[in-house]
Specification:
250 residues, eight-stranded mixed beta sheet, alpha+beta, binds 2-oxoglutaric acid, 4 helices, 18% helix
Length: 250
């Protein structure tokens, strides 16, 4: 399949410098540094399990902090436009029903749906959220895919995050900010006409400020999607932090 290489400009042309309001977690980070703690931000985790599915879910940010982070991301993140905002599926080019951007360590690329995307340099807020996830999980990440859903019409179809450039044992950490949305897992043997097993889908609501960790082998056996929800009128931003195997730098 022919691949597009998306070298989006990564330019943030916000007119005035962003005024960052002090967040609760600024205090938290300072305290952790003073205590020499490593991933020392414990949160109450909820375990979500099914055959071949292993996820952890928690509220990572308070409502107030999540509002602030959402606002900052609205100012900082530059989304792909035009040809760069398209994907290729089964040889056909499609517009995607949401906005997307990719950020990460210098030189990293990530290929999905027939498009190769180059990581823009981390913004301060993305770095801040990445570090909060690391402090809570002990996992490090070098890349983030940002998806912005303007309302409940924007969505994401069923897929697995099983690209070969992802480190297979590193969880994918999904941070949600903005309108709560349903998120549905479906087992690969229970999809479509070929489905030959009765395995119930697993449904979650991803809350404002939440973190969902998709641990191995979830993305081998389960597809996930964010379906249309017509009644939702507010926007949502989702960040999926990933670890791309090194040696794949361009
Ligand atoms: O917006 C979401 O929660 C879904 C994101 C997702 O499925 C992905 O980035 O692979």
């Amino acid at each position: 399949m022919e691949k597009f290489v998306n070298k989006s400009s990564c330019i943030n042309d916000a007119k005035s410098p962003r005024k960052k309001i002090k967040l609760e977690s600024d205090e938290r980070s300072k305290k952790e540094e003073d205590e020499g703690g490593e991933f020392s931000h414990p949160v109450p985790w909820q375990k979500i399990e099914a055959e071949g599915l292993d996820c952890d879910y928690a509220l990572l940010f308070s409502k107030e902090e999540a509002h602030q982070l959402f606002k900052q991301l609205e100012e900082e993140v530059v989304y792909s436009t035009g040809e760069e905002a398209k994907v290729q599926l089964f040889g056909k080019v499609h517009n995607i029903p949401r906005k997307q951007a990719t950020y990460g360590d210098a030189g990293l690329t990530y290929t999905y749906s027939g498009v190769t995307r180059l990581a823009c340099p981390w913004t301060p807020t993305l770095e801040y959220i990445r570090d909060a996830v690391t402090k809570t999980t002990g996992q490090t990440f070098n890349f983030v895919l940002v998806n912005r859903y303007k309302d409940g019409q924007d969505h994401m179809g069923e897929h697995r995050d099983d690209e070969k450039e992802l480190e297979p044992l590193c969880p994918i950490a999904s941070v949600s900010l903005g309108a709560p949305r349903d998120f549905i897992f479906r087992h690969r043997d229970a999809r479509g006409k070929q489905s030959h097993r009765q395995i119930k889908p697993v449904k979650l609501e991803l809350a404002h400020g939440s973190l969902l960790l998709m641990n191995s082998p979830t993305n081998t056996f389960w597809y996930h999607s964010l379906p249309v929800r017509k009644k939702i009128s507010l926007p949502r931003i989702n960040l999926t932090f990933r670890r791309i195997l090194l040696g794949r730098k361009k």
